[in-house]
Amino acid sequence: MPEEMSFEETLTKLEEAVERLESGESLTLDESLEVFEEGIRLARIGRKKLDDAELRVQRLIEIDEDEFETVPFEADEDMV
């Protein structure tokens, strides 16, 4: 199911998990571990979605009208 979520939905759920852990909410150790594990899983799904998007951008950099070249994506240092 989570793989079918959009990147934005995945990010929202990850933010909710982080908020639960940081809020001081009365969670048992087992509940905290479950929320943490879910957060890790969501972070990995989000990372994969970003990697896939980066690959698509690389594939779409055009050399000529009918020819494309894969060029490494370089983020601005300000974005990192």
Would you give an account of this structure?
The protein is built from 2 helices and 2 strands, in the order H-H-E-E. By secondary structure, the protein is mainly α. It has a two-stranded antiparallel ribbon with strand order 1-2. Helix 1 runs antiparallel to helix 2.
Break the fold down into its secondary structure elements and pairings.
Elements (H helix, E strand, L loop, with lengths): L6 H16 L6 H31 L2 E3 L2 E2 L12
Antiparallel strand pairs: 1-2
Helix pairs in contact: 1-2
Number of domains: 1
Assembly category? single chain
Q: Which architecture would the CATH scheme give at its second level?
A: Orthogonal Bundle
SS field, number of helical segments: 2
Number of strands: 2
Q: Which structural class matches the secondary elements?
A: mainly alpha
Q: How are the strands ordered across the major sheet?
A: 1-2
Main beta-sheet annotation: 2 strands, antiparallel
| Secondary-structure element order, N to C | HHEE
- How far is the N terminus from the C terminus? 29 Å
Provide a compact summary of the structure.
The protein is mainly α. The chain has helices at residues 7-22, 29-59, and strands at residues 62-64, 67-68. It is rod-shaped, with a radius of gyration of 18 Å.
What are the defining features of this structure?
two-stranded antiparallel sheet, rod-shaped, 2 helices, mainly alpha, Helix Hairpins, 6% strand, single chain, 80 residues
